[in-house]
Amino acid sequence: MRSIWRGAVSFGLVSIGVRLYTATEDHDIRFNQVHAVDGGRIKYRRVCSIDGEEVEYSEIAKGYELPDGQLVVLTDEDFEELPLASRREIEVLQFVDQDEIDPIQYEKTYYLEPDPSATRPYVLLRDALENAGRVAITKIAIRSRESLAALRVKDGVMVLHTMRWPDEIRRPDFAFLDEDVAVRPQELQMAEALIGSMTAEFDPTEFTDDYREAMAELLEAKQSGGEVQPLPETADSGAAVVDLMSALRRSVEAARGGAAAEEPPVRRAPAKKATAAKKVAAPADDEAPARRTRARQTTAAKKSTAATKATAATKATAAKKATAATKATAEKAPAKRARRTA
Fold first, then answer.
1. Which of 65, 205, 291, 329 has the fewest CB neighbours in a 10 Å radius?
2. pLDDT for 170-188, tens place per residue?
3. Helices (H), ranges, 175-262
């Protein structure tokens, strides 16, 4: 595991150096968004809405819009300079019974590991919490956010649960809460009897993620049935750009029988800089890539048709000239023979 935070637990006059580790992980089967036609990855770009330019992560700041429509921009340096003691310290504020905390307040869970030099005070606080049967209420700032946190002991390790602030928890506002719904005593007894018959000690290992297992079986069946394809190669953003006029000029010269023109110099398309008109933001829907593909195919077809027409016109002109020259030669031949006879 990799620690995400390092600081100290402040317990009275005792300071315990600790590292914070994420206690949970996701086992979801993750998918990439791809183009259904060719399997190409769908990519999203960070594009400025004003100049249309793609923006690097290093150039991105955080903006807060004021009620009057003005914008306050904050950089990483601004956040670093905030005078928060909880950025590097977990201060114990009070101790409470765990039953007093509503589970709806819990947000994320972390493990606390002591620094090598702080093992003894760490064990002292851990054992004191366990013997008292209490939970420590603390404050901590993680990733530019300060939260309340509950500190308790589990399996010999201190566990930290970040908590929502009271104003972040929504109040249920449903119409049925104001209605007078009558429940018959017999129905209530039956419901309570059912609850009693299904009561057991909670063991999370008895339950399985049926959706994940079904998805894994589906993927395995697809693979076994040969329904797989190689990852498509990503097109080079700096591909050669052929000048259309040069291509048409060479086609005309070839049709006239002249020597082919020299190969035009290849221009490399810039990888990042482009005109704002040609910059396109992330696709708004799944049809955008297909529309762009069709547009490119249509443009290529038009170019090919234009080149073909130009070549045909050039050949027709050359043929007319050859025919006229042949007729002129045929008319001149009898005149020369007549002069020789005379």
1. 205
2. 999 999 999 999 999 999 9
3. 185-197, 210-224, 244-255
